[in-house]
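Homework-ish question, so no full write-ups if that breaks the rules, but can someone show me the predicted structure for this set?
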Amino acid sequence: MSHDRLADLSRRLPELRLLTAPADLEHYGRDWTRRWTPAPLAIALPVSVEEVQAIVRWANEQAVAIVPSGGRTGLSGGAVAANGELVLSLERMQRVLGFDAVDRTLTVQAGMILQHVHDAARQHGLIYPVDFAARGSCSIGGNIATNAGGIRVIRYGNTREWIAGLKVVAGNGELLELNRGLVKNSSGYDFRQLLVGSEGTLGIVVEATLKLTDPPPPSQVMLLALPDMDALMQVFALFRARLELQAFEFFTDHALRHVLAHGAQRAIDGDHPYYVVTEFDAADERQQEAALAVFEQALEQGWVSDGVIAQSEAQAAALWRLREGITESLAPRRPYKNDIAVRVGAVPAFLHEMQALLARKYPRAEVIWFGHIGDGNLHINVLRPDDLAEAAFIEQCEHVTHLLADTLQRHGGSISAEHGIGLVKRAYLDSTRDAAEIALMRGVRKVFDPRGILNPGKLFADD
Amino acid sequence: MSHDRLADLSRRLPELRLLTAPADLEHYGRDWTRRWTPAPLAIALPVSVEEVQAIVRWANEQAVAIVPSGGRTGLSGGAVAANGELVLSLERMQRVLGFDAVDRTLTVQAGMILQHVHDAARQHGLIYPVDFAARGSCSIGGNIATNAGGIRVIRYGNTREWIAGLKVVAGNGELLELNRGLVKNSSGYDFRQLLVGSEGTLGIVVEATLKLTDPPPPSQVMLLALPDMDALMQVFALFRARLELQAFEFFTDHALRHVLAHGAQRAIDGDHPYYVVTEFDAADERQQEAALAVFEQALEQGWVSDGVIAQSEAQAAALWRLREGITESLAPRRPYKNDIAVRVGAVPAFLHEMQALLARKYPRAEVIWFGHIGDGNLHINVLRPDDLAEAAFIEQCEHVTHLLADTLQRHGGSISAEHGIGLVKRAYLDSTRDAAEIALMRGVRKVFDPRGILNPGKLFADD
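A: Not a homework solution, just the prediction itself:
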């Protein structure tokens, strides 16, 4: 039966590359989560919008589910194919389609790797400012599908802010050209914005027109050691008020231990419970002096115990590695992840409550947290104790996530800040969205994808 | 029959203020367009979210159409009630509900006048940067419904960029709390963004959480006279590359004539076909010198014939009045308006074609254009010749708009840059959106407003 369907697809698109070898099914059937066993029907690797559209039409007729697939660096299971779906990989669609110097936009195919987008922008003396550690593997289409955030949100916002236009194959097979690069376009519903963050459940992004901007002025990178949690928000408020921040990231001593064990170099001696890596404009002496003055003020107030300013690009990179290397250093332990957000103003109260909850509920597991404090976004990684079986561990974590979701709901927060809902958090969607809103989400999905062929089971618990 | 319905509404909400006097029906039944005869059923002036919700539920049960109503400064007929609708005016919902210093957000009721939003932000040393000439009358809810743009878009973007959260009563009567002020929230479809620019056809915005930002550095205002149209984009490119622009607005000699006749003061002698008002950062001597150098370079190149830099705040205001006074100076003539946009890079080619079209098709009417060249947004105002009857004039203009829409379509532009589609441009929606996209828009509308009670006939030609 599934063989017949694939044969039909091959007949329609004789040039389409289709993979069915077990190693390919496993490789393309999973993302950076490792909780599900990949079991796709096949992998399709189209090279054009027309092929994508033909595949979606075929899928509608043959009732085959499609999992849109980019770099598969996702952490929410959004690109997992564990139920006989066709994986539609964009990895052969990686071309730059155009650059406009007046509009300052770059148009690319959706499979393009984020690092290559950065490189292409730099060639024109401009930057695409969304950035995070997975830049060498993740695709721009995947970034758009999850409205990816990262380490520069405090300065530049999320992916959403940088999308001037999208070309999308909707679930119903129609090709949509959304906004076409316009700065102003008050002509009805902005489906470009609706598609950003829709996790492949409304349409498949095939091309994107990205806004670019001027490179930031020269910057400095500073590492700070903090004596306690309350100091975090005080240092943030002080630094934000006095410096032009490009990034303000924090992590705990637990996180530091793992990243040091993974080969990073210690930059501050002694034991400190919290650390901050911050980057700020330092174009001239005035700004550099301001940074020193602010650091000294924080030291005098007792909000900071120690600190170091990078004296070279190499040292700046070494300081950044302490923060950016965390996820990779934990990966072999396959941590259970939470990626949560509250309003920035709600961070202190929420942090206290959250920390108490985690200490109480994970008495034996190591809990590592870090994140983008200036965006109200915290990443929590829980490591499985060696003597606890995988299934029991996940069950325990899910129990805690339920309690965390309740806490978030009371603080008006979100169960997914930047990873998306996917499979991993779909049971908790109702902690962030009211029933009335979820009902409308389902309704909108039905409009775009009436047969429910795009990424079924993702975002919503049942389809 | 309609009397029965109103009696039913009064029974349900005895405290609700309802107006039915002919003067009120006329006053609240129209916006700044004057093409339709107001004929609402009544005017409801709720004071709370609960009252708005009760009215929408009543309207669903009684099959009464609702026209959401703010400052009624709209130019597209989006707030016109000409078919027995209930006008739901937000003008008694104008309170500030909260300010958060850490999040830097201001939460207000949707009926608040834009000028009062500006004032409230200033009280906290911050600004809400969306701004335009109607600031003293328009409401923030109306700004959101049309994704209003204005004179600072080049620096700050449209209204869309400044919305951290929305409280909305959907067409189905449900209350939605969208995004709740979060910086990061990848938990499904961003309906906040869908509501912005939806012209009251999906839900009624009742509260908004607005992002605020630091005031810009001290600025200077410059008026430039230009010898021809080609110089426009050259001067823009030069100024954008070398200065930190806050605004870059252009207008023609025709526009100048009207605004001078309306009481503004001439600032540059002689006859020049085009003028630009630009405002840019001038925080220190370096920036002020850069502005002079750029001006001199433009003069040497022959792109600028003359210019003046404001030497005081009063003179800056006088220069701004030359641009901001245009709409008001034309209002007594009830011009036919187009508000169109193309990509910035497409402006030169489009301008040439458009100018030829207007010259050919309006041989006798005076055509005045001006706009936001840095956003690709042009406003065209056509004045009725004294010897042409109103109906014949509009017929002629609609004919030209059809041709203009074709031109726009070829250049990938939009038939509405910032005014919205409303009644005025609904016949031209398909020049900007493909049939497939319009079909999805109708589908989404049906999800939010299954009975079609919210602003029927607006945006879409038939409901």
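Now go work out the reasoning yourself. Hint: Chain B has four domains: 2-92, 96-211, 219-327, 334-444.
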